Amino acid sequence: MKRTNKIVNLMITAMTIFIIVSVFFAIRGFSVIRKTTTASGQDFLLQSTEYVGKVIQLSMKNRHQSLNYLAIDGNLKNNDDPAAYLNSSQSALTTFFDSLNGEADSLFYIDASGTPLYAFHWDSKKKQVSIADTETIQPFINHDLSLKQLFDKPTAQNSASYFIDKKSYLNFYQEIKNTAGDIEGYLILPLHLEKFYQNFLQDFELDYKGYPMIKDQSMTVVMHPVAEQVGLDIVKDREKLYPDLNYSDLKHLEKYQLSHSSGKLTYKSYWWDEDVPTEVLKISAFEWIDVGLAHWVVAINADYNERNDDIINFVIVLSLLLVVLLLLIGIFSLFIHNFRKKERIEEENKQLIEKQKQQKLQHQLELELYQRNKMETVGLLTTSIVHDMNNFLTPIIGNTQLLLEEYSNDPVLEGDLQDILHSAQKGKQLSANVLRFSKTQQSVQEWLDVSAAIGVATHLIGEIIPKNIQLDLSIQENLGTAKFEEIDIQNLIYNLITNAYQATRENTAIQKIRVEVCATPKEIIEKIKKENLRLQAEKHFVSLTISDNGPGIPTDIREKIFEPFFTTKSADEGTGLGLFAVASIISKYEWYLDLHSELANGTTFLIILPVRPPE
């Protein structure tokens, strides 16, 4: 008895160590995945930022080039007579403004000293250019602090950005020279940066919440999807609008961007398009660019949590696994407690045996649930955890076999120990199967007769399906040989026939499953060679068809049935890995798989594999 108690305590200790190791690897794996995912997201944003910066620079050059063409084509010798210039250049001006898609509605001419001589206004609705009062364009001159640099550096493409009534603008410059080559004046085009943002950056798409924004050297927002944010200092002005928010990370972001030409970082901020901004964690990348005399930082921000949904789901699944493991230990401890109680009270033997049967059934169901949930966590931690489980199961099996020899004269205890041994051996077998799918192994493939291998596999499954299932076989012999593992073809046949059997269970008429093996028709061979370049070099093919007379597969889930863990069955009927295993085997050998299903008319799976013809 003391030896039994010692073995039980060792088993419980082993399970506890198993959970501790699982938690350790889970925490380590979560940390690695989170860092990797964040770095990947930041790299993507940095590449996107570089792309957006180049788009802005190229677009601005195109607008300046258009202004240059207008200056070349226009009759600017009549610069003292705007009516004459408008009359001679009406078509060119209309085409010019229309090509800007609402980004500009004013164009004016100043002499070499900076005095405005005349201005034009564009009515986008009427598609018409008219002469404007020079007083209307005075704000575009007064707020443009780069004009002084223009006179010192006439070759400047455009000004730095400036603001009028919390709206951002940028002036394009085009010098006008006389025949002697002296500068007579400048054409100036004020560009509405908000409209430019809408045309080129507003629809910039990410797979999650985020957007690009532009700031100048003073950290004032120049372009932003929220119009109210334009013209605001990212810290000082926002503190005035939202004094209760936390700006410590934004201050750090401001310092970092001002001291680096480009970079990526994670920080806490807010989505400013919300009525009441809530704090979120963002990942960001930025790059400084020069556009004429403007020096801007282009930044793209994205929601960290939305970007890392997969990690959050991983933590949820892992938490469920640990809960199941704890329940398993509790159930196992309860089982031992009842077993000891049964030995002490022999007069209540029958009642305890019945109670024990119920508990054993519950225990078995919990073990099955545990196994299914454990399979859902197959991923980065599967290999290490399953190897550890093998190490724990080996002494359980060995010691249980010793107990069977020691208590062979106690039929009740022997039966319980047989159950324990059987469960432990099943666990070891399950771990081997999990390792098979989750770990790259050296496969042993042989050239096997396709017809014979499928015949053997079909015979094996035919022995275990219910006798009321009508299983029709049509297998042509001597169709050729293919190189594969025989266990793979058995798994493939087993999963497809099991799937067909489960699909026909509710048939009130005869349940039929048909398995057919034959040479592939020429028209089908031509079709699959067009779809699969790898099969073009092959000449001989064999078709394996498995069909049923079930209700068929709904159209909306046909693309999902081969995904792991997807199932329409209840938790007691399947884990959603059967058809996933089929697809994995097909992919392993690069065979061809096709599905045909009609509602109320059943489902047919077609598998085509290349073969070597019989000698």
UniProtKB/TrEMBL annotation:
Keywords: ATP-binding, Coiled coil, Kinase, Membrane, Nucleotide-binding, Phosphoprotein, Transferase, Transmembrane, Transmembrane helix, Two-component regulatory system
EC number: 2.7.13.3
Coiled coil start-end: 342-373
Residue span, Histidine kinase domain: 384-613
GO molecular function: ATP binding; phosphorelay sensor kinase activity
SMART domains reported in the protein's UniProt record: HATPase_c (SM00387), HisKA (SM00388)
SUPFAM superfamilies in alphabetical order: ATPase domain of HSP90 chaperone/DNA topoisomerase II/histidine kinase, Homodimeric domain of signal transducing histidine kinase
Keyword Hydrolase: no
Transmembrane regions listed in the UniProt entry: 7-27, 311-336
Name of the protein this chain belongs to: histidine kinase
Organism (species): Enterococcus termitis
